[in-house]
Write a structure and sequence with these properties.
It contains 6 helices and 2 strands. The chain is mainly alpha-helical. Among the domains are: 2-34, no CATH class; 82-176, Four Helix Bundle (Hemerythrin (Met), subunit A) (Up-down Bundle), CATH 1.20.120. A hairpin with a 4-residue loop joins strand 1 (37-39) and strand 2 (44-46). The radius of gyration is 25 Å and the shape is elongated.
Length: 187
């Protein structure tokens, strides 16, 4: 019985704080949004001083258009590497998903580096993809601190579109190497 009483006694304070936090959550959120600094005994934390807050967020990379390829200009992909092609496509879709989910910058950079390696492994047919992916890696790694995460919301669609252009370029080159291919469409 003594153990039960001591358990209740030790849980009373934390449970009270949790209940109060839930009851006053809207007020707490409002207060936290207005918080500019916190003075701890050994440090002072200052909020609202990031590049985004100062209006100095990095600009997204310039928009580029994919030039349509033709069978005469496109080199054939290395078909002896179907797993490379599969994982290239898979990781490109994964990167787009991570952009919209505001994933940590290091995860997005790792995904971009993997896809660039896959594109390079496919040979010259994926030259645009490798170049574009390298440009996006430079953008995400840019500067001593890189870009702030989560991304500025208006940049996410543009960056996801850049990945989409890479996907379309690879798809067009692969389709050109298989003249009888007919893509099935979902209605």
């Amino acid at each position: 019985m003594d153990h039960f009483v001591s358990l209740i006694d030790s849980l009373a304070w934390p449970l009270t704080v949790i209940i109060l936090a839930l009851v006053f959550r809207t007020e707490l959120v409002s207060l936290l949004r207005r918080l500019r600094s916190a003075d701890l005994s050994t440090r002072v934390l200052e909020f609202g001083d990031s590049p985004i807050d100062r209006g100095k967020a990095p600009k997204p990379p310039p928009r580029r258009r994919v030039r349509p390829t033709t069978a005469k200009t496109a080199a054939s992909p290395k078909w002896d590497k179907p797993a490379t092609l599969f994982w290239l496509a898979n990781d490109l879709m994964w990167i787009q998903d991570m952009l919209f989910r505001a994933a940590p910058r290091d995860k997005i950079i790792t995904g971009l580096k993997h896809t660039r390696q896959y594109a390079t492994d496919l040979g010259p047919s994926a030259g645009f993809a490798a170049t574009e992916l390298a440009r996006l890696i430079d953008y995400f790694e840019g500067g001593p601190e890189g870009i702030p995460m989560p991304l500025i919301l208006d940049q996410v669609p543009h960056l996801a579109n850049q990945i989409e252009l890479v996907k379309r370029d690879i798809a067009s080159r692969v389709e050109e190497s298989q003249p009888q291919f007919r893509k099935l469409r979902v209605v």
